[in-house]
Automatic annotation (TrEMBL):
InterPro entries xrefs: BPL_LPL_catalytic, LSM_dom_sf, MS_channel_1st, MscS_beta-dom_sf, MscS_channel_2nd, MscS_channel_C_sf, MscS_channel_TM-2, YbiO_bact
Key word S-adenosyl-L-methionine present: no
Annotated Pfam families: MS_channel_1st, MS_channel_2nd
Cited PROSITE patterns: BPL_LPL_CATALYTIC
Keyword Phosphoprotein: no
Domain BPL/LPL catalytic: 1-125
Topology in the lipid bilayer: Multi-pass membrane protein
Name by which UniProt lists this protein: Mechanosensitive ion channel family protein
Superkingdom field: Bacteria
Family to which the UniProt record says this protein belongs: Belongs to the MscS (TC 1.A.23) family.
Naturally occurring in which organism (per UniProt): Polyangium mundeleinium
TM stretches of this protein: 12-33, 65-88, 108-130, 190-215, 277-299, 320-340, 352-382
Location relative to the cell: Cell membrane
Taxonomic path: Bacteria, Pseudomonadati, Myxococcota, Polyangia, Polyangiales
Coiled-coil ranges from the UniProt annotation: none
Length: 561
């Protein structure tokens, strides 16, 4: 029991000594940093730093010093507890470590210790100065008019810059201390690995933050490029690629950092080679995506430009062909990117393409319907049966054509329902949008009316309405369509442009009603004759005899007595 109490007291004394030395060292470092910071602020470049900012910096240094003292003190307490549990005397271990470090040359050991202490103090000083300079630089950049809308990203980049500088400075100091102190090679390699890894991570975060900021500024000004008449206007229409561009920057920066760490620690290994291959593959697929977007803009400009807008029919045909052309270009670019990516990964795509051909043939026998839809789609496109925007009727479905693909055709009906019809099922097409359509209105006229007069009146009304709406010479026919039991059916047939038949029908009905009322043309009435054949004879009703009865005596209470 006495032995354990002596060991506990011994380790407590060692812990107290270590904590006191740690606090003295912390206070020394804080004072040196404050003095150095005050000296640096005398420079004319930093004369705009306010007193509040200086006070904030000093309090931040003091606060961080206390945090480090608390963390190291907690580690020392844990070490003392562990040493007591294992029966180890902390001062004896420290003494033996110092003797091992000093060796046979106390002067050399003293020089190493002073060098390590100087490097540590210098690193802390440089870190504090770098943080102050980073804050000043961030504030100066934030005042720029180009970054007026990017205050928060600039503040985030400033924070990442401070962290990256701290990791680089302290990591470099740790590597120098391990080398100057003559530590074991394994320990030096561990310190070097940790420094490279942490430094690469925080520098990568800084690089991605700067990249995000630059991309935001570039894409914010892309609208100016879109208004140009030069080919640069295509680049101005790529603002929707901001998200994928940021992800590509992330992947490339972190892969580059990992490759650099692998080259620094284990040069010429498969890790560094894999990193380079990954960066090239990412660049290939990102370039393919950009090429696809540029191809979309270029094809739309070529097919749907100002030349096509002068001719509505030509514009309609080109709208039909644009999705097909875009599909072929998109598949070609992505297929080429896939082949290039395989080659970068040292994979020969020739056997894969041959195998894909065999598999395609095998699938083709079981997908004849799919192939039939594609073939039918080509015939629909090349024979010009349908165009985007046409009013058609296919398989009992009537509506506007919204898209004609290689495999399916999409039609939206009057209720807004979108129907997808496989091209192989397009057997019979009724197209209401070619050349002309007829607006047809039936008018019922009584037999008593002057039919030639009514026909002439209807013809005049229809010709005036068609000419007023279309501006073209009217082509109107009025004839007897049917003879009903109560009226004569006259049909008005007026040739109008495609898609205007419903509006013309409504207008003609209104005009016909007004004209017939003014001309006092009567409405048709049903003509029906009712014949009744019966053998019944109707005579006078039989005489009824009514017998008179005696009068009823009124109720009297006396009679009841």
């Amino acid at each position: 029991m006495t032995l354990h109490l002596d060991l506990l007291l011994h380790n407590l004394v060692a812990l107290c000594i270590a904590i006191v030395m740690l606090m003295l060292l912390s206070e020394l470092v804080v004072r040196v940093i404050h003095r150095a910071y005050a000296f640096v602020l005398r420079s004319p470049t930093l004369e705009n730093v306010t007193a509040d900012e200086r006070k904030t910096f000093r309090s931040r240094v003091r606060r961080r010093a206390l945090v480090w003292v608390a963390l190291v003190g907690a580690a020392l307490m844990a070490g003392a507890a562990f040493a007591t549990y294992r029966g180890i005397r902390a001062l004896d271990v420290a003494k033996s470590a110092f003797v091992g470090l000093v060796g046979d040359d106390p002067a050399l050991a003293k020089m190493r210790l002073l060098t390590a202490l100087g490097i540590a103090v210098g690193a802390l000083l440089v870190d504090a100065l770098a943080r102050g300079l980073a804050d000043g630089l961030g504030q100066a950049v934030a005042r720029s008019k180009w970054l007026d809308k990017r205050r928060e990203p600039v503040a985030e980049v400033t924070i990442r810059l401070r962290k990256a500088l701290r990791l680089v400075i302290l990591g470099a100091a740790a590597v120098l201390i391990s080398e100057k102190s003559g530590l074991a090679p394994g320990t030096q390699r561990t310190v070097l690995l940790a420094t490279y890894t942490l430094g690469a991570f925080y520098v990568s975060r800084l690089a991605t933050g700067i990249g995000y900021l630059l991309l935001d500024v570039i894409f914010d000004n892309s609208t100016r490029l879109a208004r140009l008449e030069s080919p640069l206007r295509y680049l101005g229409n790529l603002s929707h690629l901001l998200g994928i561009t940021k992800r590509v920057v992330d992947y490339c920066v972190y892969l580059t950092a990992a490759t650099w760490v692998a080259d620094a620690l284990t040069p010429d290994t498969w890790l560094s080679q894999a990193g380079r291959v990954g960066i090239r593959i990412i660049a290939i697929f990102y370039a393919s995506r950009v090429l696809v977007e540029l191809a979309v803009l270029l094809i739309n400009d070529l097919f749907l430009g100002k030349v096509a807008e002068e001719n509505p029919q030509t514009l309609q045909q080109r709208k039909t062909l644009v999705p097909v052309a875009l599909g072929f270009v998109r598949y070609a670019i992505y297929f080429s990117a896939l082949v290039m990516g395989l080659r970068e990964a040292s994979i020969d795509p020739t056997p894969l393409l041959a195998g894909a051909g065999v598999i395609g043939v095998a699938i083709g026998f079981g997908a004849q319907t799919f192939v039939g839809d594609i073939v039918a789609g080509f015939f629909i496109l090349f024979e010009n049966l349908l165009l985007v925007g046409d009013l058609v009727e296919i398989g009992g479905i009537q509506g506007r054509v919204e898209e004609i693909g290689v495999r399916i055709t999409k039609i939206r009906d009057e209720l807004g329902v979108l129907h997808s019809i496989p091209n192989g099922e397009v057997r019979k097409v009724a197209n209401h949008s070619r050349s002309y359509v007829n607006a047809v209105v039936d008018v019922h006229v009584p037999y008593e009316e002057d039919v030639p007069r009514v026909r002439a009146l209807l013809t005049t009304i229809a010709e005036k309405e068609v000419e007023a709406r279309t501006g073209a010479p009217p082509n109107v026919e009025v004839g007897v369509e049917e003879l009903n039991e109560g009226s004569i059916v006259l049909r008005i047939s007026a040739r109008v442009p495609p898609g205007e038949n419903k509006e013309m029908n409504d207008a003609l009905r209104n005009r016909v009603v007004e004209a017939l009322c003014k001309a006092q043309v009567g409405a048709p009435r049903p003509r029906k004759a009712v014949l009744i054949d019966s053998n019944l004879r109707v005579g006078p009703p039989p005489k009824r005899e009514i017998e008179e009865s005696a009068p009823v005596a009124p109720f009297s209470p006396a009679q009841d007595d």
